[in-house]
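User: Please fill in residues for this 203-position structure.
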């Protein structure tokens, strides 16, 4: 049997390693991502001021990030303010499963964008790889609805980055670890919400 003290020390070192790796990547991204995040925040702000809405989508942990973003917009971030129009496309299980069953899983977000999106709305498309077929289809549907896309992705941006126009915004975390990418995505979402609140509330 391995010595419990050695096992505990190894586990603690492993945990500390995760903290250090995450902190290093965050500092690196502080030099890279702020201009893109600022442009994305301006897109969201202008959309909201024109009575538009932000639609967010992702798979797995990215679906949770999409829902987290929508909840912060509709309810609040760190300050009280009027509700802002946002929705996560991963929450309606009846709609998701009916589209997946009757059509294809890669259409579960695109069909909702086609039905609910309007010109001037924004799609927040989240994919750590940039290769998720249903996210690519959603971004394509958004373009056909004359919406703007904010792509929150990782690695080299994948196909999602390739299909963006000059009017869209790419926020790409050039890392390989999905966990580290998602940590930066969460921070980015908080930065977006803070920037929008700051502009709306004048703080």
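Assistant: Residues filled in for all 203 positions:
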């Amino acid at each position: 049997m391995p010595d419990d003290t050695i096992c505990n020390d190894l586990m603690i070192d492993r945990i500390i390693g995760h903290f250090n790796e995450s902190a290093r990547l965050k500092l690196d991204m502080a030099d890279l991502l702020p201009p893109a995040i600022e442009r994305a925040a301006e897109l969201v702000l202008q959309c909201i001021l024109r009575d538009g809405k932000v639609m967010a989508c992702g798979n797995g942990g990215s679906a949770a990030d999409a829902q987290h973003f929508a909840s912060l917009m509709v309810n609040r971030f760190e300050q009280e303010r009027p509700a802002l129009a946002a929705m996560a496309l991963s929450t309606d299980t009846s709609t998701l499963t009916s589209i997946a069953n009757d059509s294809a899983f890669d259409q579960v977000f695109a069909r909702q964008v086609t039905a609910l999106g309007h010109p001037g709305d924004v799609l927040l498309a989240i994919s750590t790889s940039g290769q998720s077929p249903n996210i690519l289809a959603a971004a394509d549907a958004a373009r056909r609805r004359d919406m703007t896309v904010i792509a929150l992705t990782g690695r080299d941006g994948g196909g999602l980055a390739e299909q963006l126009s000059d009017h869209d915004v790419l926020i790409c975390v050039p890392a390989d670890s999905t966990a580290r990418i998602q940590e930066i995505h969460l921070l980015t979402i908080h930065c977006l919400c803070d920037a929008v609140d700051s502009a709306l509330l004048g703080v």
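For context: The chain has two domains: 1-31, 34-201.
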